[in-house]
# Entry
Amino acid sequence: MSLVNGDQEFKAAMQALDGGDATTALNIARDLLLSADERDHVSGYLCMGYAHENGGRTSALDLDEALNCFRKLSLLAPGPLPFVLMARVCMKIGGPDKFRMALKYLDEAREKAACLYLLGRAHYLRVGPERDLVEAKKLYLRAAMAGRFSGFFGYSEVARELGQNGRALAMDGLRLSTGWLISLLIGVRAQESFLSL
# Structure
C-alpha cells in the first residue's frame, strides 16, 4: 500500500530511518517538500511523518508533529493509508480523546483497507479504553483468514493473554504450515501490519 512511486530520495530516507538516523530522513523530507512536483510533497509528508513517529538515535520522536504530517498527507493523497497512520499515531499518543479520534480514522479507512482496519481495530481493543480481548481475538482471526501474518500473530498473543494456550499453539501451527502458501498466493500483502506500515 504505497503512495510513492519508488523515488530514490524516499528510499534513501527510509533506509536512514531503518538505521536510526531520523535527522537525515527529516532533511530529505524537507527537500522533497520544497520540490515543485506535488508527488514529491506526498513522499515528503509521508517520510516526515514516519521520522517524527519513530524518532531514532539522531532525533527524538514527536507524535503530535507526526499526526500533523499524516493529516497533510491525507489532503494531498486521500486514501486509506494516511487514515490508518493517523489512527496508529493517535493510539500511541493515548488518552480518551485520541483513542476516539483513532476509531474515527480507522472508520475512514475501513472500506478500502479492510485488513488494516481489522488489525487496527483489534489493536485498539487490546490497548484502548474499551479493552475487549475476546473481540480483538475475533478480529485478528478475520485478518488471519484474509492471509495477514499479523492476524496470526495477534490471535496467538491474545489467546495467550486469555489463558488459551492450546488455541494459540493451534494458530501458530496453522501459520507455520500455511505460511508458504499464503506468501505464494497473495505476496507481500501477507506482511501488511497495522503497527509497521
